[in-house]
Design brief:
single chain, about 220 residues, alpha+beta, Glutaredoxin, Glutathione S-transferase Yfyf (Class Pi), Chain A, domain 2, 9 helices, binds S-(P-nitrobenzyl)glutathione
Length: about 220
């Protein structure tokens, strides 16, 4: 059965692959699962029909027969548990990979989200510069710690896993800030993720959606 995911019909990231359907698309590509996409406007996301799938009226969602999931991390975990390729077979290694999934979403992503908030919503505040510096320092702290742990390894714990998929997805959101380049091994780690064929297919598919929306407007 082909699962269905939801995504923005016109992503505010203009096809840069930063919206959270991208990590689900990437996981689907990694495990070789074909899927359909239902595109939604911001208004449609808040309609009862979509809220029945997603209590917070957001994307992405994932439908597979009667199963409905929301939260990109939960969707990636479900895919990793149901298909080979994103979690190791060994129980301890599997548990460690899942720790990295949580670390990406709960420890590394929050200060990165704070940066988006500062940059897009708080520029007009009198305390903008101080807050920006604090948030950048909070990100540097996490990136420094992650960089130290990664060292010269290709991936966080042995073979590429769903932990890497989520960590790379999260780090991609600071790529344009320049902060990632302060940690060359992390920049290379993200580049390795982006070079994976599954990532490239997922990226091309979400970009095609944005380009089609642009073409439809002209
Ligand atoms: N914790 C949830 C998850 O991981 O699935 C968060 C889901 C979420 O934030 N979804 C966003 C959404 O639906 C889209 S990805 N927003 C609409 C709404 O809340 O009304 C977040 C996002 C948006 C825009 C950019 N961008 O422009 O670069 C990047 C990421």
């Amino acid at each position: 059965m082909k699962p269905i995911i939801t995504a923005f019909e016109r992503s505010p990231d203009r096809g840069r692959g930063l919206a959270r359907d991208m990590r689900v698309r990437w996981a689907l590509e990694e495990v070789g699962q074909r899927y359909d996409v239902r595109l939604l406007s911001f208004a449609a996301m808040k309609e009862p029909a979509h809220r029945a799938l997603h209590p917070f009226g957001q994307i992405p969602t994932y439908e597979e027969g009667d199963l409905v999931l929301f939260e990109s991390g939960a969707i990636v975990l479900h895919l990793a548990e149901c298909h080979a390729g994103l979690l190791p077979d060994d129980a301890a290694a599997r548990a460690r990979a899942i720790s990295w999934m949580f670390a990406a979403l709960n420890t590394v992503e929050p200060p990165i989200l704070d940066l988006q908030t500062v940059l897009f919503l708080e520029r007009d505040k009198s305390w903008y510069e101080q807050r920006l510096a604090m948030v950048k320092d909070a990100i540097r702290k996490r990136l420094g710690e992650l960089s130290h742990r990664l060292g010269d390894a290709d991936w966080l714990d042995g073979a590429f896993s769903a932990g890497d998929l989520l960590m790379v997805s999260v780090l991609l959101r600071v790529k344009t800030s320049g902060l990632l380049d302060e940690y060359p091994n992390l920049a290379a780690y993200v580049a390795r993720g982006e070079a994976r064929p599954a990532y490239r297919r997922a990226f091309a598919d979400q970009l095609a959606v944005f380009n089609a929306a642009l073409a439809g407007e002209s």
